[in-house]
Structure formats: C-alpha cells, structure tokens
Amino acid sequence: MKNLFHDIPTELPEQAVEVLVETSGHRIERIVSQGHASPEGFWYDQDQNERVSVLKGAAKLRFDGDDEAVEMRPGDFVNIPTHKRHRVGWTTPDEPTIWLAVFYGG
Amino acid sequence: MKNLFHDIPTELPEQAVEVLVETSGHRIERIVSQGHASPEGFWYDQDQNERVSVLKGAAKLRFDGDDEAVEMRPGDFVNIPTHKRHRVGWTTPDEPTIWLAVFYGG
C-alpha cells in the first residue's frame, strides 16, 4: 500500500487497520471503516495520544461525557489525549471511510 | 484550523507550514504549496524521519542521486529516512498542493 486511497478491502467484516509506520512511541495507521461503529458501551482508553483525521467518507466520534457526537468530514481532524475515552458512533455504510491516525507519546 | 482542506492562504509567497501537533521527538505539519519548488541545488537534510503524504494537488519529489522524480498524487505517501537528502521539484501551479507530514524519531 503506497496510496492511502488504494487497496481498500472489498469486504470489511471488521475495520481494516494497517500500520504504515511504527517506531518506539510512534505509530501511523490507516483505518478503513464502512458502517462500523464501536460496540455499545465500549470505549477506547489509550495509553498514547492520538491525532486522527478523516480523509474520505464521514464518521461520528463520541467522547465519554459529551452529549453530542463530533461529526467528521474529509479533512477534519481531532486530537485525542491519552486516556480520553472515546468510541466510533457511526461511519458511512455505503462507502468506505478512510482514517489516518497518528499515535504518539503517552 | 480544524480541517486540513480549509483555511488555505490566498497568497502564498512561500510555502505555508502549520504545526498541528508537537511533542518531544514528534511533529505533525500541514504544508501548502502552490507552484513552489525547492531552490536549485538545495536539499533537505533532516535529523528526523519524515512520513509525508499529498492530500490534494500533485507534486514531484526528488531524492539526491536518483535520476527520476517521485510523482505524488492525492493519497500517495513516502517515508523519508533521517538524512536522506531530498527536495521538492515541482508542485501544481494552478491549485494548492496540500501535504501532511509527520516527523519522528532521529
């Protein structure tokens, strides 16, 4: 995979996570979702900071304690500090949503 | 700036570099070019690794010692190891080229 928009799996029973770069304390992933959401009641609770952007598609991200989801469209990005609990509430069901996530520090 | 495709400067006498995240040993930048190229004979020679992608527009990246430039289109990315000398040979003159660069390690 040398292009973030290519090599999209045609079947996505689970989100497809590919690690593009990994060094000590630093990891870059491309994530492809299509209609995926985190299980009800599940929260990501990470030891690292995450800076994540949506490059294609759309998503709703939920933070624990917030009433409203954060809607993400292509180009939108958020910084998620260490241990800030969050989940994916929704991704586009009819086309792939492509995320670029950078994990660092922590 | 909360969207990588928004807030593009209308005049770009120089490339516009915005640091999105910076921690010790880790930096994420959005870079906007339009017709910019590195000066003839100039080479970037960096203490950190760089993983850079083109999100919009197009560019040609040159590596010292290579005969051919690497053409980059939206979604294309390359990993540039520490001290691998490189320069920007060309970017789209008629529209902005948007890069996302992650510097790490080194």
Number of strands of chain A: 8
Shape call of chain A = globular
Distance between the termini of chain A: 28 Å
The amount of beta strand of chain A, in percent, is over 45%
Helix-strand string of chain A: EEEEEEEE
Cα gyration radius of chain A (Å): 13 Å
Largest sheet of chain A: 5 strands, antiparallel
Count of discrete alpha- or pi-helical segments spanning 4 or more residues of chain A = 0
Structural class designation of chain A: mainly beta
What is the chains' assembly state?
Answer: homodimer
Considering residues with a beta carbon less than 8 A from a beta carbon on another chain, report the largest interface and each chain's count.
A-B, 27 and 27 residues
Major β-sheet strand ordering of chain A: 1-2-8-3-6
Uncertain residue segments of chain A: none
Q: Helical content of chain A, roughly?
A: under 10%
Nearest-integer average pLDDT of chain A: 94
Can you characterise this structure?
- The structure is a homodimer of 106-residue chains.
- By secondary structure, chain A is mainly beta.
- Chain A has strands at residues 16-23, 26-33, 49-56, 59-63, 70-72, 77-80, 86-91, 97-104.
- A 5-stranded antiparallel β-sheet of chain A has the order 1-2-8-3-6, with no helix packed on it.
- In chain A, strand 4 and strand 5 form a beta hairpin.
- The N and C termini of chain A lie far apart (28 Å).
- The relative contact order of chain A is 0.32.
- The model of chain A has no long low-confidence stretch (mean pLDDT 94).
- The interface between A and B is medium-sized, with 27 and 27 residues.
